[in-house]
Design a protein that fits this description.
It is a single chain. The chain has 376 residues and is α/β, with parallel strands linked by helices. α6 crosses α7 and α10 crosses α11. Bound molecules: nicotinamide-adenine-dinucleotide. Nicotinamide-adenine-dinucleotide binds next to α6, α7 and β8.
Length: 376
């Protein structure tokens, strides 16, 4: 298969979807890999390293999209890329369709096959291509939160761990999944008082068992959230309903009950955000303030640590990319249900329920496209 790896063009996005090691692996299986010049630079991979691994370097993004049967990238295509995506082209990347109606319609129009990293799902319901980035973002959320709690950044001026004779900060983590667990671990490690809230009692039981003693668990409901935010210094939003818009757990009216200078990090912003007042920001301008509450809503947090993120992401995506390249998307998706669940848009039809529901569009049965043999 002919594979194209474009350079990411979203603001401050320095990750790349395939490393030189990935190129070597794809080549070993007989595929041709075209990498856009400079695509790996931000992650520390020079063009010559890709060439040594067997890739060919193309000078422009147009050439890269133009030649490829399969595009592998990191972030969802942005407006300037919409027109480059061709009918029948397989695009394997994060899409987060449920948070962008414009992107959804653009991909419908393209008639491409859109296989979304974020909805590839294992039988235990875990999301293997979200996990590595969630680990990075969860850990980063505490680093970012600690920084914006400093007075010069308009935060409360509180040190997460406190010092002898001074109480530590209160960190509230909404969602006890991957992001929430990693955030809680980091915050607890720095000595903060941490509370994790989730709607899953089973998850809370597990967390209660494995977390250090400065981490409490609490069931998530509006009443408890209203109470907890009054004493929180740092709030991390890490909830997820797979493939759907994030639930709005903190509404605008609640902000007035919070302490001035509280910091809210909405990691779930890539699914629309779990605070009503959240709007996506970038690493170039990550925060804004509403009602004295500092909002940090960077939609691609792992982009700031591209070295770690690229290796973590590609460790997980490469085995799936290989299946797609070796078998073609139909056979690969027929034979691997995890991959099949990644299919979101095919030839202009929505085949993923959460996306169809988010934008009130018709849902088409994916089997229509996978050409399943009739069982007699
Ligand atoms: N901004 C970024 O750069 C970035 C990076 C990685 C992940 N993310 C996003 O972070 C979010 C969380 O990802 P994850 O991997 O931790 O997901 P996850 O599925 O592991 O965890 C989500 C948790 O939220 C819980 N939840 C659902 N509804 C809830 C509610 N009303 N109250 C409390 N908890 C609730 C679920 O029970 C689950 O435990 C996702 O939206 C993901 O896309 C963002």
């Amino acid at each position: 298969m002919i594979i194209g790896v474009p350079k990411e063009i979203k603001t401050n996005e320095n990750r790349v979807a395939v490393t030189p090691a990935g190129v070597a692996e794809l080549k070993k299986h007989g595929h041709q890999v075209y990498v856009q010049a400079g695509a790996g630079e931000g992650s520390g991979f020079a063009d010559k390293t890709y060439i040594q691994a067997g890739a060919e370097i193309l000078p422009t993004i147009e050439a890269t999209y133009g030649i490829a049967e399969m595009i592998i990238k990191v972030k969802e295509p942005i407006a300037s890329e919409y027109g480059l995506i061709k009918e029948n082209q397989l695009v394997f990347t994060y899409f987060h369709f449920a948070s962008s109606e414009e992107l959804t319609h653009a991909m419908i129009k393209s008639k491409a096959i859109c296989l979304a990293y974020e909805t590839v799902e294992k039988s235990d319901r875990s999301l293997p291509l979200l996990v590595p980035m969630s680990e990075v973002a969860g850990r980063m959320s505490i680093q970012a939160g600690a920084k914006y709690l400093e007075k010069t950044h308009k935060g409360r001026g509180i040190l997460l761990g406190g010092v002898a004779g001074v109480k530590p900060a209160n960190v509230l983590v909404l969602g006890g999944g991957i992001v929430g667990t990693q955030a809680a671990k980091m915050a607890a490690g720095l000595g903060a008082n941490v509370t994790i809230m989730d709607i899953s009692l089973a998850r809370l039981r597990y967390l209660e068992d494995i977390m250090p003693t400065n981490v409490d668990t609490l069931v998530s409901n509006e009443y408890n959230i209203r109470e907890m935010i009054q004493n929180a210094d740092l709030i991390i939003g890490g909830v997820l309903i797979p493939g759907a818009k994030a639930p709005r757990l903190i509404t605008r009216d609640m902000l007035s009950s919070m302490k001035p200078g509280t910091v809210m990090v909405d990691v779930a912003i890539d699914q629309g955000g779990c605070f009503e007042t959240s709007k996506p920001t970038t690493h170039a301008d990550p925060v804004y303030i509403i009602d004295d509450v500092v909002h940090y809503c960077v939609a691609n947090m792992p982009g700031a640590v591209p070295y770690t993120s690229t290796l973590a992401l590609t460790n997980s995506t490469l085995p799936y990319a290989l299946q797609l390249a070796n078998k073609g998307w139909k056979k690969a998706c027929r034979e691997n249900h995890e991959l099949q669940l990644g299919l979101n848009v095919i030839h202009g039809d929505i085949v993923y329920k959460g996306v169809a529901e988010a934008w009130n569009l018709p849902l088409v049965d994916v089997d229509n496209y996978l050409e399943l043999e009739t069982v007699h």
